[in-house]
Specification:
This protein is an alpha+beta fold and about 130 residues long. The chain is about 15% helix and about 40% strand. It has a single domain, classed as Hotdog Thioesterase (Thiol Ester Dehydrase, Chain A). It is built from 2 helices and 6 strands, in the order H-E-E-H-E-E-E-E. It has a 6-stranded antiparallel sheet with strand order 1-2-4-5-6-3. The protein starts with 13 loop residues before the first helix and ends with a strand.
């Protein structure tokens, strides 16, 4: 896991702050985000809304291809395609999204992601295609 004092760790965007999502790891071809399960994230079935899972996976996978190693050199990405597979419900209280860059080139890249909880329960997986903004 990345040191929480690492200057490369970015603060959350407005949507991530609203959802309580924070970056907890970031390195070449990898990103990790976490969120405590809070009442406002729940759907009618009293489990986190699927859109929360999709947002966390989209974010982790996009950041996995955006790492530059330099705080001043921010690489921004756009989601071209996003597939989410919903597999289970959380058993714990913490959602953990991890994204990995698995291929592509300088402008377009491909990712895979996993959403788990602190018990290790696999909740959702994702695949994405992203483009680096000019």
């Amino acid at each position: 896991m990345t040191d929480p004092t690492d200057p490369l760790l970015e603060g959350p965007s407005a949507i991530l702050a609203h959802l309580g999502v924070r970056m907890t790891g970031w390195d070449r071809d990898y990103a990790r985000f976490e969120a405590e399960i809070a009442p406002f994230l729940l759907n009618r079935s009293e489990i986190p809304h699927g859109g929360v899972y999709a947002t966390m996976l989209d974010t982790a996978m996009g950041y996995a291809g955006a790492y530059t190693g330099e705080a001043e050199d921010r690489r921004m990405t756009l989601t071209l395609s996003l597939t989410i597979n919903y597999l289970s419900r959380p058993k714990g209280k913490l959602l953990i999204a991890e994204g990995h860059r698995v291929g592509g080139g300088a402008k377009t890249f491909f990712t895979e992601g996993r959403l788990t909880d602190e018990t290790g329960e696999l909740i959702a997986t994702g695949q994405g295609t992203f483009r680096v903004r000019a």
